[in-house]
């Protein structure tokens, strides 16, 4: 787990995380090593942070980039990034919104939906 807010990176919120890293979200690569085999999921507290991290991940090119958000939020981010010059082909390689379409409503159902998508992506590489 990576966040810029130390207060949220504790066992109360992320007791199953292998590691919690407090980092400047504008420079995540300085704090976390990400390579072409990694799966990354963006879930921040606001679209401005989502965009910032998404820009960085596009440059790093991990195996999987997923972005959580409503259809409205995703459309807004796609439009802004296209206006900044990101190619449609590049944006189409990002899984947004994340997860398989199973009509998930609860956090647990969203987690299952995302897990299923990640398992599917892993299976495609074998």
Would you kindly provide a written description of the structure presented here, covering whatever features stand out?
The longest helix has 18 residues, at 107-124. The protein starts with a strand and ends with a helix. The strands form 2 sheets. It has a two-stranded parallel sheet with strand order 1-2. A two-stranded parallel sheet has the order 3-4. Helix content is 43%, strand content 10%. With 126 residues, it is mostly helical. The chain has helices spanning 11-14, 47-60, 71-83, 88-92, 107-124, and strands at residues 2-3, 21-22, 39-42, 64-67.
Kindly list the characteristics that best describe this protein.
4 strands; mainly alpha
Task: Give the SSE map.
Blueprint: E1 2-3, H1 11-14, E2 21-22, E3 39-42, H2 47-60, E4 64-67, H3 71-83, H4 88-92, H5 107-124
Parallel strand pairs: 1-2, 3-4
What's this entry about, in short?
The chain is mainly α. It has five helices and four strands, in the order E-H-E-E-H-E-H-H-H. The two termini are 27 Å apart.
Secondary-structure-based class equals mainly alpha
The backbone outline, from C-alpha atoms, is globular
Q: Percent helix among the residues?
A: 40-55%
Radius of gyration: 15 Å
Overall mean pLDDT score?
91
* Element-level helix/strand string: EHEEHEHHH
Assembly state of the chains shown: single chain
Q: Going across the major beta sheet, what is the strand order?
A: 1-2
Strand content: 5-15%
CA-CA gap between termini: 27 Å
Number of strands: 4
Total number of helices? 5
Q: Mind summarizing the main beta sheet? A: 2 strands, parallel
Taking pLDDT < 50 over at least 5 consecutive residues as the criterion, the unreliable ranges are none
